[in-house]
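Recall the central idea of this unit: under ordinary conditions, the amino acid sequence of a chain determines the structure it adopts. In this exercise we apply that idea directly, starting from the sequence alone.
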Amino acid sequence: MADGGTGTERIALNRSYAVITPDQITIKPARMGLVGPAIQAILTAGAVWLIFNHINSLPLWLLMVLLTFIIISGPTAILGLVYNVLGSAFLMERKKGTCRWQQGFLGLGLGTRELVPFPRIARIQVTSNFEEELGSGDLQDVVHWQVWLVKDNGRTLAIASVSAARPLADIGLDRANALAEALAEMSGSTAVLGAIPEWALEDLEEDDEDAEWDDDDLDADGMVDEDDDEGPEGGPDDRERR
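Accordingly, the structure predicted from this sequence is:
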């Protein structure tokens, strides 16, 4: 999703989103991550209110429990709020010619955990578990697309991931490939994009044709048209009438 006139594009990812500008690409935690720290902060504030207003009436053991909760919960709630508002998990900067993996929750997403200069990047690659099978032999119901940075020494570093239900795998693939292309363009490296196997594309096309067939038999009220006695091939339509 691009912001008109600002040159900024946002791509939804797993528990995060990518912010792409002409000068940098940032992977930030999703806003839904604020819910947990916000609830924690409210509970901490409630514990402080109880101690402040009922310190003379509450039993000593309860005061100790509330105080312990405040000491542990208060700082972690603040760290969580700061990380989800200001922190980032990954940052690529065109001017500096580097990409950095930031520290996570306790590091506020501000300190550098890993740094890779552009000349050390061999390629940006998208992989998936599309063809992996479960123990039962069935294919995965949820497809994960992973964006990797591959260094010149063969080491791989995870950048972001996108998950989608198998029927919507192409949407997740488009997001992962868009991020990979932006990263490769900024770093001057090669993007090895993911792809859906041809046999799966044929299955998706067949599903789309079946859906169009079903839609053609519905009238304006969403009911089956009783006057339509022939299927798409001109033969009798023997599908179950609802």
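The first strand starts at residue 2 and ends at 3.
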